[in-house]
Amino acid sequence: xxxxxxxxxxxxxxxxxxxxxxxxxxxxxxxxxxxxxxxxxxxxxxxxxxxxxxxxxxxxxxxxxxxxxxxxxxxxxxxxxxxxxxxxxxxxxxxxxxxxxxxxxxxxxxxxxxxxxxxxxxxxxxxxxxxxxxxxxxxxxxxxxxxxxxxxxxxxxxxxxxxxxxxxxxxxxxxxxxxxxxxxxxxxxxxxxxxxxxxxxxxxxxxxxxxxxxxxxxxxxxxxxxxxxxxxxxxxxxxxxxxxxxxxxxxx
Length: 252
Description:
Elements: E1 11-12, H1 22-36, E2 38-40, H2 47-58, E3 65-66, H3 69-72, H4 74-81, H5 83-93, E4 98-107, E5 115-118, E6 123-125, E7 137-140, E8 143-146, H6 150-153, E9 157-162, E10 173-175, H7 187-196, E11 200-201, E12 209-212, E13 218-220, E14 229-237
Parallel strand pairs: 1-11
Antiparallel strand pairs: 2-12, 3-4, 4-14, 5-13, 6-8, 7-8, 9-12, 9-14, 10-11, 10-13
């Protein structure tokens, strides 16, 4: 695989024109997630709730990302607690799982970007506590972040809700299936898996979900379409952090 791939070379995650029922679709997504480390669904989120969320975030100052989404949007809080969003995390982590971080990503003509192949290695925590295996530390928009041990990341699930349709021209997330099985990767390891793994472009319609493991290698291209591509990003966990360290939030 070369250093870049044209969109036409991607294998899009697509669905039949006639969708199965949401429960069947979510159950099939769970089965794929358990093996591949990622899954997409057809639209499963309540349309009225999406309209509420769209209206609330539409009133905010446009920017690439909004942290503390649950503090800003009542609709986002309802969404994070909905069974559609919790279905995959509960199947993987158990019914006691909770949201530890919520972000809105918004690709627009004025705020457009691409992301190279990477893993999501940082978590958001309430405060800094020096502990073995935790670090480096950083602060983003006033929120403390840290890279935890691999064992913590391996027990997390990310769910992204598509507020808008996301086709190949909208800069969808691209994934390298099953690469979460390799733990934390250095640049050489990332390049090795890039060259030996077929990537998938995770297209989705409005109300569809993308779920993936934080350790799964993923990337995205800049959007080539002037339409917005808004995504509500929720990170789930189900376990306590050690020795008094706590998650930034625990939303259920």
